[in-house]
Amino acid sequence: MIAAVLVEHRDGVVAQPSLEALTLARSVGVPVAVWLGASPSAEAVALLGQYGATDVRVVDAELRVVAHAADALRAASDDAELVLVVSTFVNKEIVTRMALATGAGVVVDAAGAERIDGHIETTQTVFAATWNVRTRINTERAIVAIRPNTTTAKVADERTAPTVTTLAVALPTAREAIVDIARVAPPEGIPLAEAPVVVSGGRGTGGDYTLVRDLADLLGGAVGASRDATDEGWISHEHMVGQTGTTVTPALYVACGISGAVHHRGGMQASGTIVAVNMDPDAPIFDIADFGVVGSLFDVLPQAIERIKAHRAAS
User: Phi then psi for 303, rounded to 5 degrees?
Assistant: First the structure.
């Protein structure tokens, strides 16, 4: 069984979630990597081989619209029974278009996938992470969008030297056209959706994210925020965690001054360990927290930062 993985890359650097997807692909079949855009460097190809990719299929074309990306992925994975992508907003639109064109079954925001009785079965959380469900894809081809941080990326026992194949794909005229492109500088640090640790601040910060950022930097994580905080203009919307923001599944989620409205919980409730700091002992966030501290984040976070630093210095 061939399992094709769409590789996420930024300026030619492979993103960590793609290595997680390759690890998952190895458990169900023979992984091949699909690379859209300018040809990868030798270092990127070698890295993909370390995680089991036997083939790197490159579509070296300027893919400015989602329809073209969907066509390119379909052409590069036409022999794959399973197509894996990282679950992002753009990728979910790509796989939806591809599923419509091929008749494949598709599941997005999955936390895992395995082959059972000849079919791909996935696991995912639904309804604001209040239910865990298992889904079987009954079609011959399956397309699965995997959430970051749900699979541990592991180097393959037998590393390969992948064959690089450049494909020429005829891209049809799209219904939409890009008339202008302005490059946006990427945010500093780890992208929110990929971070293994997320420290989020809400209304309780009063707009001061200094301690939230300090703790996130100390833990090697990313800064998140509630919708209230972004609506107030205290922090940009790219940091918003929630059903209409970014859905995150880090190993550790620290909610600081966040009450825990349904909108927010829906975007982080599937995190590994949830720590909440809030002055209100009846805040809904404590209902889902693994560890809760009732108190002001301006008292709690400095103590936590100090103790973490002291522990690291002593070890």
Answer: -70, -40
